[in-house]
């Protein structure tokens, strides 16, 4: 509970500031819009957080998001039906995670290094894939190439994003609902099954977990698979929600957003700590902050500073509360 | 935001000034209460604080660009001037995520929800943004500037005829290399309406025909270099080199310069405002600046200095100050029910060179050829007229 109190407080403060910034900011359509972005960031944050819990890191996540989004567009452009493209792209993500996991557990290469290289590789792959489309993929381009995909793509967008099939108006926060469902599944595994106990144990002490009979390598590989699969799902969501994507910047720095969300949500970079609720709350911070600076009309020059300082401030308050709590435990 | 930080800091400090709770009376429970107190107190204070943003009840106009660049700072100055004159609130946003259509639409959507009275957009990807912008144009007066999306129902487009401006660039290249040579074209975004039209204008002028596609060829001096022939001009790689971002412009220019180093009759063409300075910087660091001709686009200060110093042949300028000014002027008037300020014709492009020249009518457009010194002085006056 203590670990999520800080982020909960930060969210309350940010939402209050948002609603106070403009009478329209608290209206349902704006809050739905924020929730939708929180959902997309959250899906990716869940994966990053699981990897952090087992004491790893995944810096390739943003590039995997971008690559998956481009792959989704390219597959459909090449005639693969949207409903078939979704599982194929998620399978691609799972394979990426499997490869990362194998390199980390079998060859004992540092997770930081493996995933850093992955970041470059998958950004490059995205650019190579998108070359025939001049580096850009988008739903309209796919529909122009394959008129028959118009209805299934719009249905997918309605179901996964919540946008009206007719004009793209955002009707409900489908991405946030998806996040809650996925967080429920992650939470179930994390807090109610032996797998969760294994993951925490590995994060606390890999050696101790090994002596306790946990198949550390298998568990770590499975977590990387889940992480990259969730990243590729994030890519599909990004494709469906964005008007178009450029292969050189789709999902750019998302790995950092995801790690930030995980840490704000109570995951320790040392591993072994974190909750599903915390992951969701941590992922909610950045979108509401971005919406706040938009509503306040802050100048472009100061926006990154405002965002950085607010997050730093939130992190410091959170840490102080935790330290105080430890002292009096 | 500063006031919120101050308030939050005050309450955090207060938390630590409180006496430690006695461990006898269940310290954990007391601290849970204290933590709750911090959250509630922060919330109460922030809720009671007035937002630092302007809530004057004035008409609100919003402008979003396609990237962050000096070009847009000039446009912002024009927009600010118009906002002062029209007595409206202005939100001018230079897009931090360069050429990211998703990020741009996120900003536009938040403005729609905010209830702004008019939005001007430099569209990044007209084809894929058309559906969203059409929806937005039904809710809020929308104009496009710099980069058009003409199927969206926008009220008007404020910008130059990019194809004709591209042809003007082509004429500068032909003037610099009258017997032909090797050219490379650099641009931020090849799929945008302005990028496509501008590039095609250059190529058509070089090829001497409409809708030129070029003939695939290897370079006559260095056969390893593939490209396309447009009339007497060999285009490196057969297409414009897209950098996708101002930060990536120098590496892209440097890579091409490295490949063409030593070839005769070189001309490097920068079609976005930040491209010519990037080309000059890379050429200077490779000691190639004196061996190449540079033709630019837009009014970057370094490009203008390059023209004055004889390092750049010339630049075809739009009028970003006027883009910003007219966008706000038109939207402010529209919000007051006046359609007369909506722009109907393209804004004329101009060709800035060291020595200038007399006005000419080219393809039905009156084109001015100002001297770089005069042009720069006028630009500085425009910016000065806005103040801080």
Description:
The complex is a heterodimer of chains A (329) and B (388). With 329 residues, chain A is an all-alpha fold. Chain A has one domain (2-322): ABC transporter involved in vitamin B12 uptake, BtuC. Helices cover 74% and strands 2% of the residues of chain A. A two-stranded antiparallel ribbon of chain A has the order 1-2. In chain A, 58% of the residues are buried. By secondary structure, chain B is of the alpha/beta class. Chain B folds into three domains: 2-48, no CATH class; 60-160 and 320-346, Rossmann fold (3-Layer(aba) Sandwich), CATH 3.40.50.2300; 162-317, Response regulator (Rossmann fold). In chain B, strands 6, 7, 8, 9, 10, 11, 12, 13 and 14 form a nine-stranded mixed beta sheet that branches. The longest helix of chain B is centred in the N-terminal third of the chain and has 22 residues, at 27-48. The interface between A and B is large, with 63 and 64 residues.
Strand arrangement in the largest pleated sheet of chain A: 1-2
Look up the CATH topology of the largest domain in chain B. Rossmann fold
Unreliable residue stretches of chain B: 1-26, 44-54
CATH architecture of chain A: Orthogonal Bundle
Given the C-alpha coordinates, what overall shape of chain B results? globular
Series of H and E elements of chain B: HHEHEHEHEEHEHEEEEHEHEHEHEEEH
Count, helices of chain A = 14
Span between termini of chain A: 13 Å
Count of the domains of chain B: 3
Overall outline of chain A: globular
How many domain regions of chain A? 1
CATH architecture of the largest domain in chain B: 3-Layer(aba) Sandwich
Helix content of chain A: over 70%
Mean of pLDDT of chain A: 90
The major pleated sheet of chain B works out as: 9 strands, mixed
Radius of gyration of chain A: 20 Å
Count of extended strands of chain B = 16
């Amino acid at each position: 509970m203590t670990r999520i109190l800080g982020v909960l407080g930060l969210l309350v403060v940010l939402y209050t500031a948002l609603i106070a910034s403009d009478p329209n900011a608290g209206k349902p359509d704006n809050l739905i819009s924020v929730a939708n972005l929180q959902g997309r960031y959250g899906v990716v944050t869940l994966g990053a957080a699981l990897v952090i819990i087992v004491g790893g890191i995944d810096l390739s996540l943003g590039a995997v998001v971008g690559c998956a989004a481009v792959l989704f567009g390219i597959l459909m452009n090449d005639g693969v039906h949207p409903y078939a493209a979704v599982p194929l792209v998620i399978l691609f993500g799972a394979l990426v995670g499997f490869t990362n996991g194998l390199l980390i557990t079998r060859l004992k290469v540092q997770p930081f290094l493996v995933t850093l290289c992955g970041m470059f590789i998958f950004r490059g792959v995205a650019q190579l894939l998108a070359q025939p489309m001049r580096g850009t993929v988008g739903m309209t381009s796919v529909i122009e190439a394959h008129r028959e995909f118009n209805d299934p793509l719009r249905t997918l967008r309605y179901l996964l994003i919540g946008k009206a099939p007719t004009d793209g108006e955002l009707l409900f926060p489908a991405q946030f609902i998806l996040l809650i469902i996925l967080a429920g599944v992650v939470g179930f595994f994390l807090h109610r099954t032996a797998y969760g106990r294994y993951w925490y144990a590995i994060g606390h002490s890999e050696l101790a977990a090994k002596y306790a009979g946990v198949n550390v390598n298998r568990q770590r590989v499975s977590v990387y698979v889940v992480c990259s699969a969730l990243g590729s799902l994030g890519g599909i969501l990004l494709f469906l929600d964005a008007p178009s994507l450029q292969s050189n910047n789709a999902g750019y720095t998302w790995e950092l957003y995801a790690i930030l969300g995980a840490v704000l949500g109570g995951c320790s970079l040392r591993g072994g700590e974190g909750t599903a609720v915390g992951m969701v709350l941590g992922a909610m911070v950045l979108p509401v902050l971005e919406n706040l600076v938009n509503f306040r009309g802050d100048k472009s020059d100061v926006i990154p500073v405002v965002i950085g300082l607010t997050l730093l401030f939130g992190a410091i308050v959170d840490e102080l509360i935790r330290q105080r709590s430890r002292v009096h435990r | 935001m500063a006031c919120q930080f101050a308030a939050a800091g005050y309450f955090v400090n207060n938390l630590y000034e409180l006496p430690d709770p006695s461990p006898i009376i269940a310290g954990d429970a007391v601290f849970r209460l204290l933590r709750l107190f911090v959250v509630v107190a922060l919330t109460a204070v922030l809720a009671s604080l007035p937002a630092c943003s302007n809530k004057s009840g004035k008409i609100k106009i919003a402008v979003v660009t396609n990237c962050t660049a000096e070009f847009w700072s000039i446009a912002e100055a024009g927009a600010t001037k118009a906002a002062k004159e029209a007595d409206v609130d202005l939100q001018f946003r230079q897009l931090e995520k360069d050429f990211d259509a998703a990020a741009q639409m996120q900003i536009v959507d938040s403005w729609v929800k905010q209830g702004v009275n008019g939005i001007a957009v430099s569209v990044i990807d007209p084809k894929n943004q058309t559906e969203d912008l059409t929806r937005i144009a039904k809710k809020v007066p929308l104009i496009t500037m710099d980069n058009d999306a003409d199927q969206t129902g926008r009220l008007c487009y404020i910008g130059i005829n990019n194809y004709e401006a591209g042809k003007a660039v082509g004429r500068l290249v032909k003037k610099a290399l009258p017997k032909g040579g090797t050219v490379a074209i650099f641009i931020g975004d090849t799929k945008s309406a302005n990028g496509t039209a501008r590039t095609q204008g250059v190529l058509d002028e070089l090829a001497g025909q409409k809708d030129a596609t070029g003939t695939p060829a290897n370079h006559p001096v260095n056969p390893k270099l593939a490209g396309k022939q447009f009339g007497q001009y060999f285009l490196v790689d057969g297409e414009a080199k897209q950098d996708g971002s101002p930060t990536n412009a120098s590496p892209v220019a440097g890579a091409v310069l490295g490949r063409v180093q030593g070839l005769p009759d070189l001309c490097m063409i920068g079609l976005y405002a930040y491209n010519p300075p990037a080309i000059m910087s890379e050429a200077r660091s490779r000691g190639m600046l004196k061996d190449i001709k540079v033709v630019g686009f837009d009014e970057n200060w370094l490009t203008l200095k390059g023209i004055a110093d004889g390092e750049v042949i010339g630049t075809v300028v739009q009028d970003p100050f006027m883009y910003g000014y007219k966008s706000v002027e038109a939207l402010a008037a529209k919000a007051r029910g006046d359609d007369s300020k909506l722009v109907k014709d393209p804004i004329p492009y101009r060709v800035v060179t060291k020595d200038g020249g007399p006005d000419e009518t080219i393809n039905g457009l009156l084109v001015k050829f100002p001297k770089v010194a005069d042009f720069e002085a006028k630009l500085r006056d425009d910016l000065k007229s806005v103040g801080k």
